[in-house]
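Subject: for your reference before the review

Hello V.,

The reviewers asked for a structural picture of the protein, and I figured it would be easier to keep everything in one thread rather than splitting it across files. Below is the amino acid sequence we used in the manuscript, unchanged from the supplementary table.
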Amino acid sequence: MIYLQISTAQGPAECQMFAAFALRQILREAEQAGVQAELLEETPSKYGILSAVLKFNGKNAEALAGRWLGTLQWVCPSPLRPQHPRKNWYIGVFRLPEIPELPNDGDIEFQTCRAGGKGGQHVNKTESAVRAVHLVSGIAVRVESERSQHANKKRALELLALKLAEHHQSALQQHAAGAHKSLYQVERGNQQRVFMGQQFKERLG
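And here is what came back from the structure prediction:
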């Protein structure tokens, strides 16, 4: 199992547009490679996404991840600010720690509530959304993407484990005195892949 995070590192709207493209392209390449891909978490913005977490499984998952890990560059005049002098936009794709064993139910408080959505949808008719709180750390997640409460609970446990792994890594990094790069740091000048223009055509070679 491989977990990747796409991050704009608090970049501007153009980076958010680029991140949304990268997410679509990664999912497209996963399908072409026969890799099982699942979008676990997404933070949308007005212009695209701020970040996303993906899970991959399959014999080609490692190779797929390797093609995306690192800094991605988009070379294009801003479609949003025509007079802006900047033409280079950067985002990062990082590998997250392996998810540890799922937390024990005794350490988690589950709350159910009605899922959001447009009126009349099935998702609104039952309390299918689940909020899970890890009582020891206070970390909480909310899941309403699935129709059933059971499925949302299972996804909430997985996301909570991922959050705990991130939290653990963050604590280690704080004590590493700069030995490791921050998960959200985007390194410019060492691009893994470069895309050009508003059609995001990849520059090869």
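For the response letter, the relevant points are probably these. Residues 118-124, 172-184 have pLDDT under 50 and may be disordered. The chain has two domains: 2-99+186-203, 108-170.

Happy to draft the paragraph if you're swamped.

O.
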